[in-house]
Every structure is written in C-alpha cells, then in structure tokens.
Amino acid sequence: MINWLLEPLAYGFLQRGLLAAVIVGVVCAVIGSYVVLRGMAFLGDALAHAILPGVALAYLLGANLTVGAFIAAIIVALLIGLFSRQGAVREDTAIGILFAAALSLGIAMISSVRTFAVDLSHILFGNVLGVSSADLYLAGGLGALVLLAVAVFYKPLLVISFDPVLAATLRWPAELFRHLLLVLLALTIVVSLQTVGVGLVAAMLVTPAATANLLTRRLPSMMAVAALIGALSAVIGLYLSYYLNIASGAAVVLVCTGCFLLAMLVAPGRGWLWQLRPRRT
Amino acid sequence: MKGRDIPASPARLELENVSASYNGRPALSGVTFQAPHGSQVAIVGPNGAGKSTLFKVLVGLLPLQSGHILIHGQPLGQHKDCVAYVPQREEVDWRFPVTVADVVMMGRYNRQGWFGRPSAADRAAVRRCLEQLAIADLADRSIGELSGGQQQRVFLARALTQEPHILLLDEPFTGVDATTQEATLDLLDALRQQGVTTLVSTHDLSLAARRFEYVLLLNREMVAFGPPAEALSARAIQTAFGGRVLFVDGVAVVDDCCR
User: What is the CATH number of the domain that holds A13?
Assistant: First the structure.
C-alpha cells in the first residue's frame, strides 16, 4: 500500500503535478463558494472559455501565456458588465453571446496555425504532468494572493453577496468589490488552466463548493470544507489517473462529482436518505 | 448614546420634490415632506405605488432623478447619521450560509470597518438586541431554518444593533405571525422613546391611522402627507387607491390583494 502511494512520487513531474492540482483544488473551491452562492457558475464557465483567444494571441506573439489568458478574462468580464448594464440585454444572454464568440475566436486563431494542434488539447483539458517549476511557483503565488484577498476582504465580499442593500446603507463601494471578485475569479481560472484546462475549470469552481454547501451552515466552514474536498479530489484524481491511465483533469473532476453525489445522498438534514427516513409524529 | 443629542431642528429628514425611476420607468414623483426628529411615518399606497422605490432612494440604492433629500440638514450621501433598512422578506436570500448571530453582527460592520474584528461592545450589542426581540435562543441557527416571523425579527435585531438615527421598515406587517407583529409594534414604541425617526411602509390603513403620527399617501406621486386624520381623508384614499376602495359607513375598505 505504501509502495502504491509512493511509487508515482518518485517522478519529479508527478510531484509538481500533484502540488499544482492541490493548489488549484483549494483556490477554486474557496472562490467557488462565492460562485455558488452568487449564482455565477455560468459566468465562471464563460470566463474560462474566454481566455482561449488570449492564450492563442500570446502564443502567436511569443508572449507569456498566463498574462494573455488573464487579460482576455478581464476584457470579457468587463464586456459582460457593459452589455448587460441598464438591462439592455439580460446578463446570462450577454454571457452566452460573449462566451461563444471568444471561444470561436480562439479556435479560429488556433486552427490557422498547424503547430497548435497538440497544445490545443492541453489548453482545453489541461496537462497537469507538464507543470514546470516556474509554472508551479506562479500558480502558488497567484493562488496565495487570491486566498489572501478573500481573507482580507471577507466582510465586504460577504455583505455584497448576502445583502447588497446593506452595502448601500453602509455606503461601502459595492461595485468595486463586485469587480474585485471578478478579478479574483479570472486569476483563479488562469491558475487552473494548466491543471484542468478550459473545459473543466467550471467543475472545480462549482462542485466542491456545492458539496460543502450541503454539509455546512456558515460561509467560513463552507470554504474550509470545499477546500478540503478540492484538495482531496486533486490527490485521489491524480493517483487514479496514474494507475488507470486516464486523463488527469477528467479524473480529478470525476472524484469531485463523486463527493457531491455522496453528499447529496447522506448530507444531514438535506440529503436524500435523510428525507426518506421515517418521521416520528 | 453618541449622537443622540443632536438638536431636533432642522427636521431630521426633509424631502423636496423627489422623483425617481425604476428600470427606466418613472416610479415616483413630486414627493415633498418633512419628518421631524423622532417622528414615525407610515407610508401607505397600493402595490406599485413607489413605497419600496422611495426606500431604495433613501438608502442610496437608486439615484435621485430630481429634487433634494436632506438628512439632518445634510444632503443624502454626505450625511453622517446612520440609516438602517429592514428589507421585505422576499428580498433576502434565505439559503445563504449565515447564522442568526452572523446576520445581526453585520449591523456592527459600520463601526468595525472593512477589516476590523468585533469588539466586546459589538458582541454585547448583538446579544442585547437578540434578547430584545426574543430570538437569543436562535443565535446559532441558520437563517433558512427559521419561520417567517423569526426571520423578520432577525433583521429587526440587526437594524437595532446599527443604532440608527433613521430606520426604514419595508412591509414589516405583511405575512408575519401575531407575535412578530406585536414585537414590531413594541419595538416602534421603544424607538419612539429613543428619538429614532422611523418610516414604515404598510398596506394596513387602519394600523397607519392608529399607530403613526404622520401618514404619507403615495400612488406613483405624493397624494397626501400629514397627521392620519388629514392625510387619510376619504378623497385622498380615493385618489391613491382608485377603484380598489369601497366606503362602507364612512369606513374605507381597500381591495389590494388581487392584481
């Protein structure tokens, strides 16, 4: 059993992949708590796809892919805000339009360059085993920054999420904090790119947080449990990926989904089994 | 208490020809009144009359289209007095993972700022207000587990911990149990003693006439403002409620439940 656990760790690329996956699992789960509570799942998915043209352009220009991804995510987030302001278009419609447009633009750019072929699948589904030391430091640094911001701005972010009217009576700048949350979300997605890819980031944002929401009753404990589920799923998913020879990002997400189904079944008070139990009258 | 010794004049809350729109449509116009220090004003009108719009303007959530609002002589936005708002129950996300104590503590965020930790005084204020509204035993419960009346008392307790100078209550008597209604009325009496200026929107004309010093009658524009006997004249009620009002032996009966 010990050997079974230690064997993959003999490889440096697997150690780095494991660390990167745990970082992504934790950061996604914490920001994901706000994504779940504020109903931003679709926005998170859209931002993840919107980074594709940014990555492609950075690749063509020989620039840093992470910076390209981040800039693209910020631009799309701001455009969604612009389109849906004053109710000209509903927000989910604006997201739908921009999300497909950015994805198409990215694919169009990538399809024009033959050498992209291999990299495309890495962008879409991640390549956790290709994480370099530099990538790992960047992910660790940005992830720590996101977690620090969530801790420092805990009260304003709680107020704008739970009760925007209170933010108004306190005269706290709700717009500013809403945009801060969008930037943190964009950073999280960029950090996750290499591990789970564009296609599966949304699952890492939503699934652990939704699972924790079933099991806890306060926001700090929801974030802690979500982070634990995210990290555990990352580790278990990577071992499954190593031994069963399946795609790593998919394995991690499937473990998350398994945790969610288990919580749906047994969550005290809210799970299916709980609701089936005979009631004493 | 700090700030309670501000002189009663000029009037605590002055509105002059206030207009506002909601989602691009005009929702409220020509509202002019003065609520003196410590007075209690009932805001009455049919659904869609602009009661909630007026509150949203007062807390700064909707921009003023024209007119002026002065809070103790200072323009809205520059005022130093604390305005607290108790929302209608439908406006709150009851599935949000916060406990009763968490919500009531939010009333002290004004004192703590963005980064401060709750002080002993904050904790004491939270405990006192929970006890005042008889929900101290629910402190560690999720807000989603409570009954409608208990949920409302949580937000009343939060408003109290803010130690507001102006308190806005949006439909506090709609869809709550008798205990909560009684608790709310007791609270209004206590607030009167403390000199808190209170604005309450309600559908209940007779309650407005019995328990409030002033009544503001709205129907997308100001219909009347004054002591109940003046503001709730048969003609004013007819103007505000139109065809939905019936006079039976001089008593106004308003059909406002089905639209």
Answer: 1.10.3470.10
* Residue B207 maps to a domain: yes
- Interface ipTM: 0.85
Lowest mean pLDDT among A217-231, B72-86, B219-233: B72-86
For all residues of chain A together, what is the average pLDDT?
87
Q: Are B123 and B201 in contact (CB under 8 A)?
A: no
Q: What share of chain A in percent tops pLDDT 70?
A: 94
Global confidence as pTM: 0.87
Token pair in block for residue A115 = 């050498």
Q: Which two tokens stand for residue B146?
A: 């409570």
Query: Hey, of B56, B99, B114, B199, which one would you mutate to test binding to chain A, going by the most A CBs within 10 A of its CB?
Result: B114
Residues with Cβ within 8 Å of B257's Cβ and at least 6 positions away in sequence, in order, are: none
Which residue spans within chain B are E strands per DSSP? 13-22, 25-35, 40-44, 66-71, 74-75, 83-86, 166-170, 197-202, 214-218, 222-226, 245-248, 251-254
- Residues above pLDDT 90, as percent of chain A: 40
Pick among B88, B95, B102 to test the A interface (most A CBs inside 10 A) = B102
Q: Which two tokens stand for residue B171?
A: 């439909």
Check if the beta carbon of residue B158 is closer than 8 Å to that of residue B186: no
Binary contact (B85, A172; C-beta < 8 A): no
Query: Could you tell me the residue range of the domain that residue A135 belongs to?
Result: 2-276
Residue B41 lies in domain: 13-254
User: Is the backbone peptide bond immediately before B10 cis, with ω within 30 degrees of 0?
Assistant: yes
Beta bridge partners of B248: B251
DSSP state of A247: -
Distance CA A239, CA A21 (A): 11
Number of domains composing chain B: 1
- For residue A116, the model assigns a pLDDT of 60
CA B99, B105, B106, B108: dihedral to nearest 10 degrees?
180
Rounded-to-integer distance, Cα B38 and Cα B67, Å: 23
Residues of B in contact with A213 (CB under 8 A): 97
The minimal CB distance from B83 to the residues A153, A158, A169 is found for: A169
In a domain, A281, yes or no: no
Structural domain count, chain A? 1
The pLDDT > 90 percentage for chain B reads: 36
